[in-house]
Amino acid sequence: METKLARITELAKNNSDMTFTSLAHLLNSEYLMQCHHQLPNRKAPGVKGTTKMTYEQNLEENIEDLVLRMKQKSYCPSPAKRVYIPKDEKGKKRPLGIPEHEDKIVQKGMAPILNAIYENDFLDCSFGFRPQRNCHDALKVLNVYIEKRPVSYIVDVDIKGFFDHVDHKWMMAFLRERIVDPSFLRIIARFLKGGYMEQAKHYKTESGTPQGNLISPILANVYLHYVLDLWFERHVKKRIKGQAYLVRYADDFVCCFQYQEDAYAFYDALKLRLNKFNLEVAEDKTKIISFGRFAEENHKRAGKGNPPTFDFLGFTHYCSKSKEGKFRVKRKTSKKKMASKLKRNNEWLKANRHLDMKDIVRKLSRSLQGYYNYYCITDNVTTVVKFQNAVIQQFFKWMNRRSQRKSFGWEKFRLFLMKFPLPNPRAKVNIYELRNHISYIL
């Protein structure tokens, strides 16, 4: 299958106008068997409760039946099981759709095919859910734009409920720009229309692509590639006076402008552009701010202090200085993200305080290490230390509520942590180190 995917990639790269007429046949028994084995073992089951283990009890028969139904055009994905996960510290929850195991197999097979076609089409401004790109790469490129380019204004945009409002007709129209295999497109359309189950009731989905679906990330990128990225590159940049830059990670994006009038003109045009494709700007979460080295000087001259800040990918970006007194963009964990993580951590400690303390330390250590890997970026270690201290305070609090008697004083607790230490934060990501496959953008 790797050879076939490489061939698709080569064809897509060499001919940007080429349409692919025969893709569904790639979803054969051998390939789908591989997809089944690649899926994680302990993922939550869908509405029918089928796990990976139960599915593989009759694996060959199940896969053969699945392939036959796809060939006969009778394969219909089951509705996704709707669950909710915490979204922020205020208790808001984000809906997730958990597909049936069989549907996960099909999606697992389709995602690499879609990636092979579209990866070479996607523009350099897009970083989310793409091979060899991540959030840190997006932050590094944005940092260069603000520090090294003539940027004085930031348009920080939030699309209102993007994944719930993807227009299915437009989605299929965008896919047909590259794919004209009716069988392959039919499967995608059925995934989009599959609906979801919540409290034993089936709900249809007339718009949107469910988060939790294995092909949702690539479909989201395709949608915004046509709606936003190409439009920004081919139309916005040609109609403004100064320079402009776009950095997008999935549906989260920031636009940088040299001139204020360009920033406001873009924002007005963006609202119209998104409305055309059934999307809407969340105006209460979207702002245009003065930001950058020139903005800092202007604010100081006007006696306004430092320019305002903006949040992107979990970090609050603010204007500052280097040790040499030169302008620098610095970033720290956003208060919203830190509060949300601390709330979830507190709830976990409360629910699991009965566990052996060494087990709690092991689980806390893994959680902290994952947090450090993302947030321990240049200039942010001090903020992460504050987070670590807050976690230790929570740990101490709940260990003293394991029974009616107080278990620990601070001194005894400190000795315990010396014997079973939690990991300490240290810088993991240098904002100025650009990986080779990203540096060409600049």
List keywords for this structure.
442 residues, alpha+beta, four-stranded mixed sheet, four-stranded antiparallel sheet, 17 helices, 49% helix, Group II intron reverse transcriptase/maturase, RNA-directed DNA polymerase activity, Mat_intron_G2, transferase, RNA-directed DNA polymerase
Overview in brief:
This protein is of the alpha+beta class and 442 residues long. The chain is 49% helix and 13% strand. Strand 9 and strand 10 (315-321) form a beta hairpin.
Number of helices: 17
Q: Level of helix content?
A: 40-55%
Main beta sheet: strand number and arrangement? 4 strands, mixed
Mean pLDDT: 93
Bin the strand percentage: 5-15%
Secondary-structure class = alpha+beta
Q: Please provide the count of β strands.
A: 11
What characteristic shape results from the CA principal axes?
globular
How would you spell out the order of helices and strands? HHHHEEHHEHHHEEHEEHEHEEEHHHHH
Q: Give the end-to-end Cα distance, rounded to a whole number of Å.
A: 34 Å
* Overall radius of gyration: 25 Å
Low-confidence stretches: none
